[in-house]
Design a protein that fits this description.
Helix content is about 35%, strand content about 20%. It is α/β, with parallel strands linked by helices.
């Protein structure tokens, strides 16, 4: 018998872009309404590279979600020049929970990213020593690599050698998109985990080209072929505790998505847990949703599970065509479409 209502421990989002300024004020309340905590990405312009900058950003986020119990979990942006003493300071802080690796040029505001991971070895050694996780955007960015192979090549050329050098480093392989990534995490030791987005579960690369170019389905890492989508769906059906919820919700103004640039990023924070619930139900895996959304992430990060609960009701509703983004307009994931779970 199909369920008409589910109550689960309040979930967390382990990969989120909140932006800054007017955009932050517009979008942060969506996440605060659903999630107790979220790992906040540091790829602002300029990026959040120091503990001092992270404190200042934290204050701006808390102002945007005033009146809620939402807890932002902050990260630092790894550069070629990040020093081990910054890692010590981050670990001593109570609010910085990871350091983000963007290979230079991999995605939005990644120009300050790492040019050669070996330049970071002393810093990574300190992270391994103090237990601060490395959160990886896992794509090889050399211009001669096929865009659909960037994750696979990164595993072979960067991630496997990295884990040989630092076998006890805690690593979250963010927004995995391929069978190779799913297999790598599944077969790895307990200090390696991964997040999976709703778009990579729901769509394959056909979605970007149906009825013309679909810029609102364009994200990085880019959607992959059906065999990879099926591998990710198999992961959530399996209930493997090494995988957890990370939306990678990343807002861009409609004018920037529907432009010559076609900025990469999909905004899903407006209905994230409802969309995941719909996906898990389609896969006959609704019983696995709570662990994926609410248990596996805090367990990996060494944080307590949330004590509050949320309730989702089986109820059809239509996602709005747009939301405000400061003075601009934002087109959300699945705009105009009907989904069948609603946060009570």
């Amino acid at each position: 018998m199909s369920k008409t209502q589910i109550t689960i421990t309040q979930p967390d989002d382990w990969h989120l872009h909140l932006r800054d300024g007017e955009a932050l004020t517009s979008i942060a309340p969506f996440t605060a309404k659903q999630f107790a905590r979220a790992i906040v990405m540091p790829n602002l312009n300029p990026p959040v590279t120091t503990v001092v900058q992270a404190v200042e950003y934290l204050d701006r986020i808390l102002a945007a979600v005033q009146g809620t119990d939402f807890e932002p979990l902050m990260t630092l942006y790894l550069t070629d020049n990040t020093r081990p003493d910054e890692i010590i300071a981050a670990r001593k802080s109570c609010f910085i929970k990871g350091v983000k690796l963007y290979p230079s040029g991999a995605t939005t505001n990644s120009d300050a990213g790492v040019t050669d991971i070996r330049l970071c070895d002393k810093t990574l050694e300190k992270m391994q020593e103090v237990g601060l996780p490395l959160l990886i955007h896992g794509e090889a960015t050399a211009p001669d690599i096929d865009v659909f192979d960037r994750e696979k090549v990164f595993i072979e050329t960067t991630l496997q050698p990295l884990m040989q050098r630092f076998p006890e480093l805690k690593v979250v392989f963010e927004h995995i998109t391929t069978k190779e990534a799913a297999d790598f995490v599944t077969e790895s030791t307990a200090n390696i985990a991964a997040t999976i987005t709703p778009q990579h579960l729901l769509f394959n690369r056909n979605a970007m080209f149906q009825g013309g170019l679909r810029p609102h389905h364009y994200c990085l890492p880019v959607l992959k072929r059906d065999t990879h989508q099926q591998a990710l769906l198999a992961v959530i059906r399996s209930g493997n505790a090494k995988f957890f919820l990370g939306t990678d919700s990343a807002p861009h103004a409609k004018s920037k998505k529907e432009s010559a640039c076609g900025c990469a990023g999909i905004f899903s924070a407006h209905a994230a847990i409802e969309i995941y619930a719909s996906i898990f139900e389609q896969q006959d895996a609704l019983d696995n949703l709570e662990a994926f959304a609410s248990f596996n992430g805090p367990d990996f990060y060494g944080l307590p599970r949330n004590s509050r609960t949320i309730t989702l009701k089986k109820q059809e509703w239509q996602i709005p065509e747009s939301y405000p983004l400061g003075s601009e307009t934002l087109v959300p994931f699945l705009a105009g479409q009907t989904i069948n779970w609603k946060l009570a």
